[in-house]
Amino acid sequence: MAGAVLENLSTRKLIALCVVLLLFQAAFFMLGGIIAPSPTTAYPHLTNKCVDTGKHRHKQQWFIPWGEFACEKIVDLEDAIEQEIVANQIVFSIEIPNRPNKMSRWFQYILTVMDITIAYHNENPLGPDPVITMEISLGYRNEGDAPGDWKELIKTTEERKLECTFDRPLIPESNDYTYHCDPMPFMELGSCHHDYYLINIRVPVHEHKDINLDLGKLQDIHIIEIHQNGGFTKVWFALKTFVTPLIIMMTIWFWRRVCALNRQSVLMERTILALGISLIILDLPIEWLTLSVDIPFMLLISDIRQGIFYSMLLSFWIIFAGEHLMDQTERNRLSVYWTQVTAIVFGCTCLFVFDMCERGVQLSNPFYSIWITDTGKNLAMAFIIVAGICASLYFMFLCYMVYRVFRNISVKKTALPAMAKARQLHYQGLIYRFKFFMFFTLLCAAMTVIFFIITQVNEGRWKWGEEHTVEVNSAFFTGVYGMWNIYVFAVLSLYAPSHKDPRKYESTVQNGDVSGSSNEEYELRRTLTDSAATEEPSELYRMTGKTAQD
Amino acid sequence: MYRMARYIELFFLIFTSVQSLSQGQSWWLLGLKSHVFQTWSKVGIIGPSIQSLCNQLEGLSQGQTKLCHLYQDHMYPISTGAKSGIEECQYQFSERRWNCSTVDGQSVFGNVMTIASREKAFTYAISAAGVVNAISRACREGELANCGCSRALRPTDLNRDWLWGGCGDNVDYGYRFTKEFVDMKENERIPPKASAEHGIMKMNLHNNEAGRKAVLSMADVMCKCHGVSGSCSMKTCWLQLANFRDVGNELKERYDGAAEIRRNRRGEIKLVDSRFNNPTAFDLVYLDPSPDYCIYDPSTGSLGTVGRLCNKTSMGMDGCNLMCCGRGYNTFQQEVVERCHCKFHWCCYVKCKRCKKIVDMHICK
User: Nearest CB to B163: which of A66, A104, A456?
Assistant: First the structure.
C-alpha cells in the first residue's frame, strides 16, 4: 500500500510518461520559439525640443511634441543661440508611443532608459563627476479624451550621475565630437494602463545653487522605451491558464492519496505538497486582471511569486536528498535542515528587501532607482552579494548531500550480492530510479543554465532563411517555465503514495526473468510482507530502516 | 484660415525655387533647399494640394516623385539628410584641393560629378549615409507617421503588428527606405549592359550601399537588463546611431582606400588590380582617376585652388606647397574678431566677450 508510484510503475509506463512529458516540453519550447514574438521591444525615442515661451505661466502646461496642440520646437540646440532662447526655456518632450500607435494593456509594464548625447567643446567641457538635475512630469491620456487633455501622473525632480568618457584629445579640433555616456535608468511603470503617455523634461540651470552648470554641450536626450510585447503576453497568459488547472488537479490528487493512508504524513510528502502549492501560486494567471484594473504592483507580485517558488524548489532539493540519505539518522523533521533552509530564507529575504527598495519605491515614484545614488548602489550590491553568498553556501550543502547519497548507494551496492535475490533486485531498482530522478533534476537545472547562457550570448533571434526566425528569448521563457511545471508535475505524480497492493505481484517476482537491468515488463515489488512496513511512506524509507537493522 | 495661409506660403516658396530642369539634376538639391520643407512639415496634415507639390520639386527623378507622393513626411528628413551629407563632405574635405564646394544650379556639386572618380564615390556614399541617419532620427522623433513596424516597407496593418511584436528597429527602417529612395534614380532606366552608363550605374549603387552600410555598422548595440530583482534574465537591446561625424570619418577612410574598378564585357565590375581583395559592401569604388583639381577647368568641374587658404607649416594636403600645386602663395595679416571667454549653459552661450587677434593668412596664387 505504501510504496511511491515511482517504485510501483512498470518500466513501460514510466517510459510512456517520460515521452508524454518530453512532448509537452517540446511543445512549450515551440510555443515560445515559433508562435510568440520576442518578449520585449525597445523603441528608441528622440526627445523633441520644445520652447517654453512663457505664455501659460499660470497653469500646468504640457509640451506636446506633435499634433494639434504641438509646442514650438527647435530642431537643433545650436539654433537656440541665434533665437535668444535660454536653457531654462527648453523642455524635452516625448509622447509614448509614436504616432499612429497607442499603448495597450497587454504591454504590462513600461521601462525607460535615458541616453544623453553630449558634445565636447573646448570652452565648455563636461565637469568632473557631472550630475544632471531634471524636472520631470509624466502625464497620460486615453483614447476618447480631448487631444490636449493630459492628466498628470507624477511630477518630480530627479538627479542622475553622468558617466561619460571622451576618447579624443581635449583640444579645439575635437569640438563637436561626442562623449560616450552610459545609458541611465529613467522610469519604471509597473502597469501600462493608459493609451498615451507624455514625458516633459526640463534641465534648469541655477547658477547660485550650482545646478546643471557643468553639463558640457548637451545635444540630444534619447529615451528608450521598453515594454513586453502584446503577442508574448498573450502566449504567456495562455500558457499559465493552461498549466494552472493541471497542477491544481495534480496537487489535490497527491494530497488525497497521502490522506488516504492511515498514518501521519511525512516531511517529504509535506514538502512536495508545499512545492505544488508554491507552483500554483506562481501559475495562477491573476495577470488577466491587469487588462481591466490598474495594478501597478503586479511586477512586484510576480517577483515575490517567483521568489516563493524558487525558494521552495531549493528547499525541496535539500529535503529530497536528505531523506534519501541511507544512514541511520532519524530525520523527517524540518529542524534537521535548519542550516540549509536558513541559507535559502536569508538569501531570499535579501533579494526581497532589495526588490522592495527598487520596485516598492517605484510604486510611488516611477523615476526612482536604487542604482542612481552611491549609497543606494552600495546597499543594492551588498544585498546581492549576501544573496550570492547564501546561494553558493546552499549549493555547497546540496552538492555535499548528493555526494553522500551516492556514496551510501555505492556502499549498498557492494552489500547487494550478499542479500536475498528478491531484496537485491528491489534495492537495485530503487537505486536506479533514485538516480533517474537525480538525473532528471540535474537535466532541468542544466537546461535552464544552458538556455540562459544561449540567450545572453545570442542576439535573441535565429534566422532560418529569409522569413523564418526563431525567438530564442521567448523559447527560453516558455520552455524553462514549462519545464519546471513539468518537473513539479512529475514529482507530484511519481512520489505520490501508490495504491497497488504489493502482495498481488509477489508471484511475478518469483517467475520473472530477473537478470539485472535488462528486465522490461518487470515490476519492482516489495518483498517484505511484515505489517509494520506498511506504515513506511516509501520504499527508500524502508531501505534505510533495514540498513539500520543490518 | 491659418493653415490655408501656410499652404499659400508654401506654394509661393516652391514656385520661386522651380527652375528649368537639366540633365545633371540630383535629389541632393533637396539638401540645399531644406528650409522649404521645414514649412512643409509644419503644415502637419498633408492635404491634396501638397500632392502636386511633389511634382514641382526639383532634382527628383520620376520614381522619386512617386515616393514623394507616398511618403510626404519623409521629404523633410531626406532634405536634412542630404544637407548634413553635403556639410559633412565639406568638413572632411576642407583641407583638400577639392573641397566639396557646391555650385549654383541643378547639379549641386557641378561637373565634378561627370567623372566617375573617387570624389563622386564619396559624395554618393555620404549623402546616402546622411539620409539613413536623418530618416532614423525622424522616426525616433515621431515625425514620420509610420516607420519601423513591419518588415514590409509600407505596413498595411500597423496597429496589429505593433501590438503583437512592437516596432523596434528604426535604423533598419532608415536603411530600407533610403535604399528604396536613393537607389531609385539608378534603377529607373537600366542602360544596356555593354554601355559605359551601366558601369557608372553599378558604381553608384555600390557606393550608395557603402554609405548606408557605414551608418548601420557603426550603430552601437545597447542593452538593458530588467529581469527579476534587476537580474539579466530579461535583456532588451536596441541600436544607437553613431555621431554623424564618426560616420564621416569612416567614409573618409574608405575614400582614401577606395578601389579602382573597371567594367568587363559582360557588364560586371571587376577590380583593376586583381592582386587585391575584391571590394566589400563597405568599400568605395571608382572607375576613373580623379583630376588634380589644381586649376580651374569647367569641363572637369575643377574650381582650382587659386585663392584658397593654406597652412604654411603643414606637410599634408592643406600645406601651402601641395594645396597651391607649387604655384606659391601670398601672405598677409588679418584682424579676426571672435567670441571668447564665453560663459556656457548646456545649450546656449550666456555672455561672451569679443576678442580681436591678428593672424597670418596664406592664400594660394
Answer: A104
Q: Are the Cβ atoms of A183 and B164 closer than 8 angstroms?
A: no
Cβ atoms of residues A217 and A458 within 8 Å:
no
Min distance B195 CA to chain A CA atoms (Å): 34
Q: pLDDT at residue B245 above 80?
A: yes
Q: How many CB atoms lie within 10 A of CB B97?
A: 22
Same domain, residue pair A162 and A196: yes
Backbone angles phi, psi at B228, to 5 degrees: -60, 130
CA–CA distances in Å: residue A297 to residues A158, A300, A362, B316: 22, 5, 9, 64
Cβ-nearest to B345 among A75, A87, A230: A87
Nearest residue of chain B to residue A37 (CA atoms):
B165
Q: What is the pLDDT of residue A237?
A: 95
Measuring CA to CA, how many Å separate A488 from each of A267, A272, A398, A451, A484?
A: 17, 8, 19, 19, 6
Inter-chain touch A45–B159, beta carbons under 8 Å: no
Look at residue B315 and tell me if it is in a domain. Answer: no
Are A221 and A245 in the same domain? no
Interface test with B, best of A34, A35, A38, A43 (most B CBs within 10 A): A43
CATH at A304: 1.20.1070
Asked if the C-beta of B346 comes within 8 angstroms of chain A's C-beta atoms, the answer is yes
Quick check: is B314 in a domain? no
- Same structural domain for residues B324 and B299? no
DSSP E strands, A258-410: none
Whole-number Å distance between alpha carbons of A212 and A314: 49
Rounded CA-CA distance A427/A445 in Å is: 27
Q: What would the pLDDT profile of A422-454 be if each residue is shown by its tens digit?
A: 777 777 766 776 787 788 888 888 888 887 777
Give contacts of B145 with chain A, Cβ < 8 Å. 99-100
Domain of A132?
41-228
pLDDT digits (tens, 9 = 90+) for A192-202: 999 999 999 99
Mutate to test the interface with A, among B42, B90, B236 (most CBs of A within 10 A): B236
pLDDT-derived band of residue B151, with 50, 70 and 90 as boundaries?
Answer: low
Within 13 Å, how many C-alpha atoms sit on residue B57's CB side? 33
